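In line with agreed milestones, the collection of sequences with tokenised folds has grown. One record among many is set out beneath this paragraph:
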Amino acid sequence: MSGQTATGAPDGLLKRIISEKRQRLRKNVHILFLGLTAEEADPIITLLRGARLAPRGQQVQSAEEFNQALSERSWDLILSPQVEGQFGAKEAVQILHRLNKDIPLIQLVPKSTSQSLLQGLKARMATVISLEEQELLLIQIRRQLEHLENRRRLRIVEAELAESEKQCQQLAELSKLPILYLTSELVTLYSNPAFSELFGLEESNGGQYEPLDKFTVLKDRDQLKTALQDALLEDSHGVKTELKARRVDGTNFQATFSIQHARYLNQTCLQVIISPDIIGNEESFENLDATTRLYDGNYLINALEKAAHRALIGGSDCSLLYIKFDNYSALQSELGASGSDIVLADVAELLQQKINKTHICARLEEDVFAILFHDPSPDKALKLADLLCHSIAQLSIDVTGTTVQTTCSIGICSINDNSPHYVELIGRARTAADAVLHDGQRGNGVQLFQLEDDDHDDHDDSSIKMITDALDNDKFRILFQPIVALASANGWGNYEVFLRLQENDGEEGLSPNVFLTTMDSSDISVRIDQWVIQHAFANVAEQLKKHQRSRLFINLTAAFYQDPDMLHWIADQLKEYRIPAEMIVFQASESDLSTSQVQAEQFRFGLKKLGCKFCIKHFGVSENRELLRSKLKPDLVKLDGFYIQDLNSSSDSDKAFAALIKDLKGSGIGSIAPLVEDTRLMGKLWKLGVDYIQGYYLQPPSEEMTYDFFE
């Protein structure tokens, strides 16, 4: 392996960019623990860390501390019990209501009952739940955070909408096309200068107080009134009508009146755009694909954007069908460009025969057709897609005397009031179509897009069964990620050991965070740790035979170090594999250690006697961090990811970080910075005095220990 590949730059950087399962920064969550001690808060912190969240907590015990905390920053969540005679959840909710603060508060109770839930909801709590129901607590926390994020986004969108309306007003002023806005009572709210110019009005008047029908000839006024009434309907897709317009000087001209829903001055209204002497160009050649005579991609995207907007209002659900040829590249190679165009044209003709003109059929990409199916029923969309799929497969196409057949994969995406941006709708339909061709299938099929379930929705006894099966059938594997010294490397390399559950050949595998988040089985946890240690020791032994010294960082669960027999077991393994103890670093999460300090001290004392090193990972998340550091006296600490994420937020963050590193150095404790993603950050960490760095910029976890530490 070349040095360039080994170091992961630039090849490692390229892998980091293109990998679908690349390392992700944890999402910082700022939590107020109201009326909870550090010992009560630490299990919650551990739970959240397992769910790929980075909790940053603060304990408050009184109304004064609570108000002070609210003034210092924006908080994401409040967790609090209700203790008689003390400042608690109910009093906090009252303060939040008075200050108009949008922070969800979850009340923790000894035992969850329908009565406690009812009382909590009446008191404006987000929910009421027992601290013992950890999986349910985790689901509720994630759900409340999601709801809060959606509300914050909505407020941003509302502000952006107001800004967009302001910009639309400015654009209307500059538009060369006449534009009016009418209320639901068809009273003119606004008309732009182009309207005044076209109809010969005085600029100061602008037609604001004149009814629109005054600007059409008498015989067309009923037609205009009908068009306006049709456009007012909630499910209206917009109306276009050809009328003879009338200027104030009595002269007439033919014009197209385009009427659709809009917003003006923060109210719903009708927008009327008048195109003089121009017939609506929806059927014009400029909107058609020259090869297939279907609408082109631009027309489809514009129609999709409007359909998605109408669906958000409600009552206008529809579907997008994404029709992709399974063998288009082969057709091009065999038939050439002109021959493949014949195939496209014949399939397009079939679509036109099978699809009512009410629906929009277009050529979206070179080898992709799309249908905007204006029917709210997904079942009907599936039925149509199935019909098209079979019809295309049975179609015999003559290309210069050669009979050709082809097949298509069709993905369907529903469009409703919960749909995302219209560009993502195309991506969803494409994903469903790709699944027909790749997920163990060969195309020529139909699939409806469905959102994947969250990882946390299915953690139960099946997890234990799955892990037991993996242990018994050797489905686990370990990966190694380098931990690189920014100063002297002491002649050896450092690697952290990661565990993966191999579900299918060729896949990266599942992280323990996926299948161990809320599983409560200490026996299984210990078995997994033992499996990792044995396989890690075996790799170190192989390295030593090659005269390569690599120090390994091995993660432990709380169940492992709480078992007093495990120290004897480690000693036996070191002896069996003939490994120097100094080459093994055991690391545990700070929040786990905080909840079992007595067992942690005993385990740390035993490791020191064996000669193994000890590291506290996720350092800095617990209120007990200084107490743990003084009692456990770790050789190294791995800083929590939020320190790295916050480094560039302000100069105060840099100063606090530098002070922490200086304090660690003064205590003889080495520091490791994880989640290093670029050269600039690496240089900053070096200047601040960090000892080691780790991250995807250097190299993702891999099956081999091949990083060149000494080039």
Notes: The chain has four domains: 18-154, 175-276, 285-448, 461-693. The chain is about 45% helix and 20% strand. Residues 1-25, 278-284, 455-460 have pLDDT under 50 and may be disordered. The first strand starts at residue 27 and ends at 34.
